[in-house]
Amino acid sequence: MSLDASQPESRTGRLTAHEARQRLEHARNTCLTQLHALARTGQAADDRLLAEQKAAVEQALTEIDAAFARVADGTYGRCEGCAKPVPAERLEILPYTRHCVACRRRTA
């Protein structure tokens, strides 16, 4: 699935820029909610675990910002490893991903 600025997803199997932004906004809002919940947890939890969770959510927010930039420059939905379209199912689950599954496995 890659970005199509003109056609709705249901007709082409591709996201429009508007649909991509909506999914990324939802992911961003989810991360911000998680950060808020982690802040409320405070000292009630293991400090090390709390710091790791916070770092993971902050990293996701960084990736979301980068995905917004890819929407703007027209590269959203293309794998940065092989340049093939990232499958629709993967973008549904992880809308800010940079890689298809095969390339992600190679970089991990």
Walkthrough of the structure:
The chain has 108 residues and is mainly α. The chain has a single domain (9-107), classed as DksA, coiled-coil domain (Four Helix Bundle (Hemerythrin (Met), subunit A), Up-down Bundle), CATH 1.20.120. Helix content is 64%, strand content 0%. It is built from five helices and no strands. The chain has helices at residues 9-12, 17-41, 47-73, 88-93, 101-107. Helix 2 (17-41) packs antiparallel against helix 3. It is globular, with a radius of gyration of 16 Å. The model is unreliable at 5-12 (pLDDT under 50).
Write the layout of secondary structure elements.
Blueprint: H1 9-12, H2 17-41, H3 47-73, H4 88-93, H5 101-107
Helix pairs in contact: 2-3
Short account of what is shown:
This protein is mostly helical.
Number of domains: 1
The share of residues in helices is: 55-70%
Q: What's the level 1 CATH class?
A: Mainly Alpha
Uncertain segments are: 5-12
Q: CATH superfamily, please?
A: DksA, coiled-coil domain
Report the order of strands and helices. HHHHH
Span between N and C termini? Answer: 22 Å
Secondary structure class reads mainly alpha
Biggest pleated sheet? none
What is the radius of gyration?
Answer: 16 Å
CATH architecture: Up-down Bundle
> Would you tell me the overall average pLDDT?
86
Strand content: under 5%
Number of strands: 0
The best one-word shape is: globular
| CATH domain fold name | Four Helix Bundle (Hemerythrin (Met), subunit A)
Q: What is the helix tally? A: 5
